[in-house]
Backbone:
């Protein structure tokens, strides 16, 4: 839980952000796929100078699911607000369904590439011809 938010502005416009990384038990940074995505902590919370009703809060985009070419990236979208200056997540039904931000988007990584060949050229020397000398 996040206590009173230290940011100015009207709630619903203010955001607090923190870094969320996947790490091994030894503290080594791992790829996001190696952690359980259903347990991923929120990286972005609403904040403001007063209480506010639940509204949509978009989380950061995850990595593109393609190593090259076109893919899809996902982000979590939560319905949340503030009560007494404290972050409170609410059921999706508490937020306006028509204004829900997209939870997935197309993405493009570097162009995919692979090796191509032409047909073989002709042999540059006469191949397989040998002479025998008989005594």
Residues:
């Amino acid at each position: 839980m996040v206590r009173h938010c230290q940011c100015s502005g009207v709630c619903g416009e203010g955001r607090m952000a923190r870094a969320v990384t996947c790490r091994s038990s030894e503290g080594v940074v791992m790829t996001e796929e190696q952690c359980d995505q259903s347990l991923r902590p929120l990286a972005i919370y609403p904040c403001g100078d007063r209480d506010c009703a639940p509204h949509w809060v978009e989380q950061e985009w995850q990595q593109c699911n393609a190593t090259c070419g076109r893919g899809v990236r996902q982000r979590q979208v939560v319905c949340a607000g503030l009560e007494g200056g404290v972050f409170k997540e609410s059921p999706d039904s508490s937020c306006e369904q028509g204004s829900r931000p997209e939870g997935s988007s197309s993405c493009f990584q570097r162009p995919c590439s692979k090796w191509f060949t032409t047909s073989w050229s002709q042999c540059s020397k006469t191949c397989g011809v040998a002479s025998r000398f008989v005594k």
Summary: The chain is about 0% helix and 25% strand.
